[in-house]
Design goal:
The protein has about 375 residues and is of the alpha/beta class. It is built from eleven helices and twelve strands. The strands form three sheets. Strands 1, 4, 9, 10 and 11 form a five-stranded mixed sheet that branches. Strands 5-12-8-6-7 form a five-stranded mixed sheet. Helix 2 runs antiparallel to helix 3, helix 5 packs across helix 9 and helix 7 runs parallel beside helix 9. The longest helix is centred in the N-terminal third of the chain and has 36 residues.
């Protein structure tokens, strides 16, 4: 084997060839021995080179393990963004602001990684502002909410016979007599509109959306709370013939500590989170009466007091007895009119919330009404 051929061998192949040469030297003549010795010299040279290379590799690996060397690039697997991450991106916020202004949602839908049916989702920071606005309203935050598309029918119990104790050997109890009513909740738009200047429209996307939702959402939520009060105070006191409305009992007389006690007596077991709702003057009158009479107890019977303008008399009860169905969710939607006031450089913005609000819980609420004021 020539020297060049030996220099291409690996360590195991070299060991094998050296063993073969040891056998060949036993019968070799002088000329053959000279050739074999030259081959052994080449094998030794190759073996030393391989061992030195292996040692260098070992030292380099040990150095890297101890932190030596320079990281050139760490490749990470790229994962697609989730819809929530996209909704928080600057690009989506910009696209959503344009959608609000123009009504064109193609760019928003193109950015989303998942197909979205119906209305495109608002950026998360807008969703959080709207949710906080709802939660801050002491009336609307307490009512029941559903998000069913279209009209919603809610059943309620008009009357039912009580359960009976059956003693063995005696006649079986009579079958229960149950009478049900149905409240049909038909949604309508709660609207509020404002006019803004071109300067407002020129705001950055995030500032523009924050201004718009803060300004209009507050007013619309305020109106939704007004409709809750309206539904309670305009409910019949008895079940109508069509059994399509839940009645709300009434206590006649001015709102007072005594009237609150009478109202509490009319509530059913289902009323748990009971509050007292009245306007500021009514609340002040009850407090002043307690001071003048030197009451030694809370004139509101320990109930949480909620001040609300526009309440006629007062309301006592659990607001969970009222339900709002919001087919398009709690987010306020907007339409723009940049034509009707164009000569004034103003744009009309209309906010709307699609909602149905109705009393659905029997014996959950009581009105305190002063007939002398009616």
């Amino acid at each position: 084997m020539t020297r060049d051929e030996i220099m291409e061998l690996g360590l195991e192949e070299i060991e094998t060839r050296a063993a073969e040469i040891a056998k060949e030297t036993a019968e070799a003549d002088n000329e053959k021995l000279e050739t074999l010795n030259a081959e052994l010299d080449a094998i030794e040279e190759r073996k030393n080179a391989l061992l030195e290379a292996a040692e260098e590799t070992r030292k380099a690996a040990a150095a890297v393990a101890e932190g030596a060397g320079e990281v050139i690039e760490i490749r990470k697997e790229e994962k697609p963004m989730t819809n929530m991450e996209i909704r928080n991106s600057h690009e989506y916020i910009e696209a959503f602001a344009e959608y609000v202004k123009t009504g064109e949602d193609m760019e928003c839908r193109a950015l989303l990684t998942e197909n979205v049916n119906g209305v495109v989702p608002v950026p998360e920071f807008v969703e959080n502002r709207v949710r906080q606005a709802w939660e801050r309203d002491k009336i609307f935050s307490r009512i029941a909410k559903t998000f069913v598309p279209g009209n919603l029918k809610v059943g309620f119990e008009v009357s039912a016979t009580d359960a009976a104790v059956h003693t063995e050997g005696q006649n079986a109890p009579s079958e229960e007599t149950l009478v049900l009513g149905i409240v049909t909740m038909v949604p309508a738009n709660i609207k509020k509109w404002i006019t803004v200047s071109d300067e407002v429209l020129a705001l950055g996307a995030e500032d523009f959306l924050a201004y718009l939702y803060d300004e209009l959402t507050y007013k619309i939520i305020q109106k939704a709370a007004d409709l809750v009060i309206y539904a309670i105070q305009n409910a019949p006191t008895t079940v109508p013939a069509d059994k399509d409305k839940v009645p709300v009992a009434a206590v006649t007389g001015p709102a007072s500590s005594a009237a609150i006690l009478d109202a509490l007596a009319l509530l059913g077991d289902g009323a748990q989170d009971i509050v007292f709702i009245a306007d500021g003057q009514t609340i002040a009158d009850i407090k002043k009466a307690a001071l003048l009479a030197n009451y030694a107890f809370d004139p509101f019977q320990g109930l949480e007091v909620i001040q609300k303008e526009g309440v006629d008399g007062a309301i006592v009860g659990d607001l969970a007895g009222v339900q709002a169905n919001l087919p398009e969710g709690e987010t306020v939607r907007f339409t723009f009119d940049n034509l009707s006031l164009a000569e004034k450089d103003l744009v009309k913005i209309v906010g709307r919330l699609y909602a149905a609000i109705a009393v659905v819980g029997p014996k959950m609420l009581v009105n305190i009404t002063d007939e002398s004021e009616s």
